[in-house]
């Protein structure tokens, strides 16, 4: 097996791991629920990669997502980047002319605007659950319908049903009312999809000029009902890329490839044996100033190997000093 670059995207809902070769071909992709256990999810993804492609040579690793710092420490990442950058890099690789990226995940959603392949604006929603996949999951569970069937059921709708989508509480009570009025599940689900998209456009996309080509990615992009609702709302075709649910991980791998080749350096990847190490994250409040930062400290084999969260960099500097003294 030749050289590969690994990308890891750790979010609150899913953990994604991909491996691509030097020609940007994705050889492996892993999408699984984080289930509140990011360390175990990362280990499981990498162990699966190692089992399926045992003789690979890892030449670069990138991490992204809300758990990117932790993932970066665990694997020895060459690049640790935010989700906006990672998603934009991956999307422009597959669709160089993209102007607007819709990304909806389990706990948050974002919109990214590009021009000539460069991010010119973006917005994120991390507060309102009514515009995320977790809300759909909850409603699917309440209606006793597998979330995988939501999309196909929405497309079977024959009647317009408007669901109040500005808030999860209002949306749920409105759905219950519509059920009591006798509307079909297909009509209600379709109304829910349209409500989520309206909420997304009105909140995340507020005040922004949305221009085609449009690309829709993130776990929710698997839902054909949401895709159809987007196309109805913006009156334009929406592209769902082949690897829609692991685009962040692909972007992280591409960024790692670019850095390794630009700097002509050797990867800092810890290796697959490092997966057997026990990584223990702990947090504490720094009282050094009025910021009262929550500092995250990660230990392995009883030694602190990384800290982050301190806005002033005091603890990171102490970490560097301890490492230099140890050497």
3D architecture notes:
With 327 residues, the protein is of the alpha/beta class. The protein folds into three domains: 3-87 and 248-276, 2-Layer Sandwich (Nucleotidyltransferase, domain 5); 96-240, ATPase, nucleotide binding domain (Nucleotidyltransferase, domain 5, 2-Layer Sandwich), CATH 3.30.420; 279-326, no CATH class. Helices cover 38% and strands 24% of the residues. It has ten helices and 13 strands. Strands 3-2-1-4-5 form a five-stranded mixed beta sheet, sandwiched between helices. A five-stranded mixed beta sheet has the order 8-7-6-9-10. The protein has a three-stranded antiparallel beta sheet with strand order 11-12-13. Helix 3 crosses helix 9, helix 6 (168-180) runs antiparallel to helix 7 and helix 7 packs across helix 8. It is globular, with a radius of gyration of 21 Å. The two termini are 35 Å apart.
Concise structural overview:
This protein is an alpha/beta fold.
Primary descriptors:
single chain, 327 residues, alpha/beta, Nucleotidyltransferase, domain 5, five-stranded mixed β-sheet, 10 helices, 13 strands, globular
Judged by helices, strands and strand pairing, the structural class is alpha/beta
CATH homologous superfamily grouping of the largest domain: ATPase, nucleotide binding domain
Please identify the top-level CATH class of the largest domain: Alpha Beta
End-to-end Cα distance: 35 Å
Query: Numbering strands along the chain, what is their spatial order in the largest sheet?
Result: 3-2-1-4-5
Query: In sequence order, what are the helices and strands, one letter per element?
Result: EEEHEHEHEEEHHHHEHEHEEEH
Alpha-carbon Rg, integer: 21 Å
Quaternary structure of the protein: single chain
Uncertain residue segments: 323-327
- Tell me the total number of β-strands: 13
Mean pLDDT, to the nearest integer, reads 86
What is the 3D form?
globular
Instruction: Please name the CATH topology of the largest domain.
Output: Nucleotidyltransferase, domain 5
Helical coverage, percent range: 25-40%
Tell me the CATH architecture of the largest domain: 2-Layer Sandwich
Q: Describe the biggest sheet?
A: 5 strands, mixed
- Strand portion: 15-25%
Overall tally of domains: 3
């Amino acid at each position: 097996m030749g050289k590969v670059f690994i990308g890891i995207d750790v979010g609150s809902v899913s953990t994604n791991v991909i491996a691509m070769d030097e020609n940007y071909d994705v050889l492996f992709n892993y999408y699984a629920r984080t289930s509140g256990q990011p360390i175990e999810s990362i280990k499981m993804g990498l162990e699966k990669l190692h089992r399926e492609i045992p003789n690979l040579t890892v030449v670069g690793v990138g991490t992204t997502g809300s758990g990117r710092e932790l993932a970066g420490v665990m694997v020895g990442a060459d690049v640790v980047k935010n989700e906006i950058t990672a998603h934009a890099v991956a999307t422009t690789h597959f669709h160089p002319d993209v102007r607007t990226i819709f990304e909806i995940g389990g706990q948050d959603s974002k919109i990214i605007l590009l021009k000539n392949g460069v991010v010119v604006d973006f917005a994120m929603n991390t507060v309102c659950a009514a515009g995320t996949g977790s809300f759909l999951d909850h409603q699917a569970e309440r209606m006793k319908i597998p979330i995988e069937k939501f999309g196909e059921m929405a497309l079977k709708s024959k009647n317009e049903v408007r669901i109040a989508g500005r808030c999860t509480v209002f949306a749920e009570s409105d759905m219950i009312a519509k059920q009591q009025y006798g509307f079909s599940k297909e009509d209600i689900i379709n109304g829910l999809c349209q409500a989520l998209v309206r909420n997304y456009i009105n909140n995340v996309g507020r005040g922004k000029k949305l221009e085609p080509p449009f690309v829709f990615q993130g776990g929710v992009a698997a839902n054909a009902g949401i895709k159809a609702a987007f196309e109805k709302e913006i009156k334009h075709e929406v592209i769902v890329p082949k690897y829609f649910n692991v685009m962040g991980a692909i972007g992280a791998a591409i960024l790692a490839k670019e850095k390794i080749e630009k700097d002509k350096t050797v990867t800092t990847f810890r290796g697959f044996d490092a997966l057997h190490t026990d990584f223990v994250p702990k947090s504490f409040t720094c009282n050094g100033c009025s910021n009262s930062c929550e500092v995250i400290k990660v230990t392995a084999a009883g030694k602190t190997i990384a800290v982050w969260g301190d806005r002033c960099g005091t603890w990171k500097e102490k970490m560097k000093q301890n490492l230099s003294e140890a050497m």
